[in-house]
Amino acid sequence: MTPLEISCNDADATRRLGSQIARIVEPGDVILLEGDLGAGKTTFTQGMAAALGVDSAVTSPTFTLMNIYQTASGFDLVHVDIYRLERLSEVVDLALAEMLDDGAVVVVEWGERAVAALPGGHLLVSLRPGVDENRRIAHVEAVGSAWERRLAGLDAQQVPSP
After folding, report:
1. Is residue 71 part of a domain?
2. Distance between CA atoms of residues 27 and 125, nearest Å
3. Would you place residue 119 in the very low, low, confident or very high pLDDT band (cuts 50, 70, 90)?
4. How far apart (Å, rounded) are the C-alpha atoms in residues 15 and 8?
5. Strands 122-129 and 30-34
6. How many domains is the chain partitioned into structurally?
7. For residues 148 and 140, is the Cβ–Cβ distance under 8 A?
């Protein structure tokens, strides 16, 4: 499947994209986020969390490494930022694979660094600058057949328009 390219005109549109992705996640899923500092990775996760019924503030886990939120669906949303980690063994030490086995949905900022430490397929969301400082272009790519099927359904849903 060809990756989706979605224009997000502002932070609210980035949150709406996260909300749309939340509608297709299942327990045990991995979403890897890529993008420079300030690209909107946490903003995207805020949209996911809101759609999943998280009732607490979602903040960047840059200094705590990981924030865990209980969703209204009964599974945990694990928000990880591995920017400060230098070795794959440090990612493994976070026990993300075990959390996935327990049914958590794991969202990893700087996710390209974590691929080797995580099992199975994943959804890759790359956020890049748009034509001005508030706009982002999101490339959404399914890795694995389960994600390909679900992402095909997202294509037909309403997402932030270009």
Report:
1. yes
2. 18
3. confident
4. 9
5. parallel
6. 1
7. no
pLDDT digits (tens, 9 = 90+) for 6-43: 999 999 999 999 999 999 999 999 999 999 988 999 99
User: What pairing do the DSSP bridges indicate for beta strands 30-34 and 105-109?
Assistant: parallel
CA distance 107 to 52: 13
Domain hosting 96: range is: 4-156
Q: Does 27 fall in a domain?
A: yes
Q: Are 47 and 15 in contact (CB under 8 A)?
A: yes
Q: Enter the tokens of residue 48.
A: 């996911």
* 130 found inside a domain: yes
DSSP 35: -
Nearest 5°: phi and psi at 31?
A: -120, 120
Q: What is the CATH number of the domain that holds 11?
A: 3.40.50.300
Report if residue 87 sits inside a domain.
yes
The CA-atom distances, in angstroms, between 157 and each of 5, 16, 115, 151, 162 are: 14, 12, 28, 10, 14
Query: What strand order describes the sheet that includes 30-34?
Result: 4-8, 136-143, 122-129, 30-34, 105-109, 76-81, 66-70
